[in-house]
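A reminder from the course coordinator: this example appears on the midterm review sheet, so study it carefully.

Given structure:
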């Protein structure tokens, strides 16, 4: 998967979650060789974050911060590049303070949060990073205080409601379970609808690519529950013209991805699957990789009897 494609999703996703809390300087460029920051966040001074169910992400965003997200574990060079961007920001803050003839405080200097699905113990040791379990959860590693940097290892986070928003940015089973949890959130959750749309859009954009990598195919499957839920929401709200066509296309594309070009018999099951309740439909489509053609047809036949 190209980093550009995933970066765009991560930026939109984090922006949607953080916008109610403060100001987003999305894709802010720093002068040092024109490097781009994923998300630069400044919280509102009067924002009561307790009213927003953001858990660990909300705690991270209580102070000004930068977010750099990696789809794959960053290398030593990439970590140094993140630090370089952070200190370029510090340089801008210091120069601005000098022009205004005032001293700066530590609170004006943002902390850098590096988000990665996994990270080796060798890298953690090499960076001198440590967990602070009395204040933070497992999987959050802080570099020495003077560096104002922390690494969040998403796959090490406890799987609970507080970490849900960050786990969606993981990979494999971690991401799959988080997306399923997101679809099960109550409809009055302030983030549910827009995040489902972002995830569904990312899935559709990936599906349109040619020569998908194995990782991209995995992401498409991981995001399928969000896409199915989005279609179901559109159906219930009556917002989307052609919603049935979109649903049939989605099911057809998954079947073609598993079995190749569909013959008359397989084409005939598409509409049947579309009529299943969303939970049964999602379970069936997510299990396609483990089903043969005969097993699929047998399961559908037993469903009708």
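Designed residues:
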């Amino acid at each position: 998967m190209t980093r550009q494609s995933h970066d765009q999703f991560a930026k939109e996703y984090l922006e949607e979650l953080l916008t109610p809390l403060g100001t987003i300087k999305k894709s802010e460029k720093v002068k040092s060789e024109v490097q781009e920051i994923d998300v630069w966040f400044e919280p509102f001074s009067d924002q009561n974050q307790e009213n927003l169910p953001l858990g660990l992400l909300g705690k991270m965003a209580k102070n000004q911060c930068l977010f750099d997200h990696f789809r794959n574990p960053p290398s030593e060079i990439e970590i140094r590049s993140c630090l370089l961007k952070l200190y370029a920001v510090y340089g801008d803050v210091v120069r601005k303070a000098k022009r205004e003839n005032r001293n700066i405080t530590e609170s004006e200097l943002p902390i850098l949060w590096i988000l990665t699905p996994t990270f080796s113990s060798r890298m953690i040791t090499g960076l001198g990073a440590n967990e602070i379990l009395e204040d933070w959860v497992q999987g959050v590693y802080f570099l020495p205080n003077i560096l104002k940097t922390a690494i969040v290892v998403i796959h090490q986070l406890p799987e609970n409601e507080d970490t849900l928003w960050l786990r969606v940015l993981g990979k494999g089973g971690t991401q799959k379970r988080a997306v399923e949890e997101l679809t099960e959130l109550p409809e009055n959750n302030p983030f549910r609808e827009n995040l489902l749309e972002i995830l569904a859009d990312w899935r559709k954009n990936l599906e349109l690519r040619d020569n998908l990598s194995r990782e991209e195919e995995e992401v498409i499957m991981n995001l399928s529950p969000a896409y199915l839920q989005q279609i179901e929401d559109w159906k219930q709200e009556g917002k989307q013209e052609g919603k049935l066509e979109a649903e049939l296309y989605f099911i057809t594309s998954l079947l073609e991805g598993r079995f190749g070009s569909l013959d008359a018999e397989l084409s005939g099951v598409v509409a049947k699957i579309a009529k299943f309740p969303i939970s049964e439909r999602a379970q069936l489509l997510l299990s396609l990789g483990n089903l043969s053609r005969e097993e699929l047809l047998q399961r559908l036949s037993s469903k009708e009897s």
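The beta strands are 22-24, 29-30, 35-36, 39-43, 65-69, 111-116, 130-131, 140-142, 149-153. Residues 3-167 form one domain.
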